[in-house]
Amino acid sequence: MELNNLPEGCIANVLSLTCPRDVCRLSVLSSTFRSAADSDAVWDTFLPHDYQSLLSQSQSQSQSQSLSSKKHLYLSLCQKPLLIHDGKKSFQLDKADGKKCFMLSARTLFIVWGDTPRYWRWTSLPDARFSEVAELVSVCWLEIRGWINTTMLSPNTLYAAYLVFKPNPAGTYGFDHQSVQVSIGVAGGDTRKRTVFLDAERGRSLRYQIVPRRAGIFNRARFLPSAVEAPPPAQDTNNNLDLEYPKERGDGWLEVELGEFLNQGDEDKEVEMGVYEIKSGDWKGGLFVQGIDIRPKPTPLN
């Protein structure tokens, strides 16, 4: 029997057992496959079971419900974050497999001295996802913590958390030679700690360093700059992990990974994430903090 002779409902049942990427690929086989691949029965299986509850928490609920099909709703949630919880969190789907992604705004985080204008200010930026971001003015004790419940996330999924921030164009100080400690842990389990830098320029400069070389007639000691590959970054002696530096996101902000955790989904637990620099006593400032992004960690198979 040719595949095109199968009932459309049968094809839809088979497609619902695959993934969104495969459904889109198989839709080009024939008009019957395309019709089945566009059906609500298929795309409803890729939407999270609680998507209606999440939509009800958004101010743009009516706009989402007006979409013509479950496929359009799925693609909309992949392409544009949905603000929930009074605009203080955002929800999105991973386009490849429909796993849930969340960002916690700075307003939902615990920030030491966060309500003291001398140390932190709350402001708005046109390229931010949320209405407010936290501006680090100047502190000698940097401590930021956030929490998310595992029941909000997709089960059987390896997640990673990222601090989302960017430097103040007016200037940043105190981070060029000072690392910070980040941590992540699930309640009842071990807390993983690592060391990172928040200065993206320092990360770029470590790729090359300027060293002197002799040049000129009669081998005179005239020094000219020569770009050579620098030695690899120092390692975090506590965890034997290479130090990490911020990476630029697609939205123009920077992010640095705080760590990863496996959400098995069989228990209701709390994940705590943190950023700390409380040992040096040095003053630091000049950053905008947008929040903490929690999303599935890419694997070689993705």
Automatic annotation (TrEMBL):
A single Pfam family it belongs to is F-box
Q: Which InterPro entries does the protein's record reference? A: F-box-like_dom_sf, F-box_dom, PP2-like
Q: Which CDD domains match?
A: F-box_AtSKIP3-like (cd22162)
Q: Where is the F-box domain?
A: 1-46
Classification via SUPFAM superfamilies: F-box domain
Give the PANTHER family listed for this entry.
F-BOX DOMAIN-CONTAINING PROTEIN, F-BOX PROTEIN PP2-B12-RELATED
Under what name is this protein listed?
A: F-box protein At2g02240 family
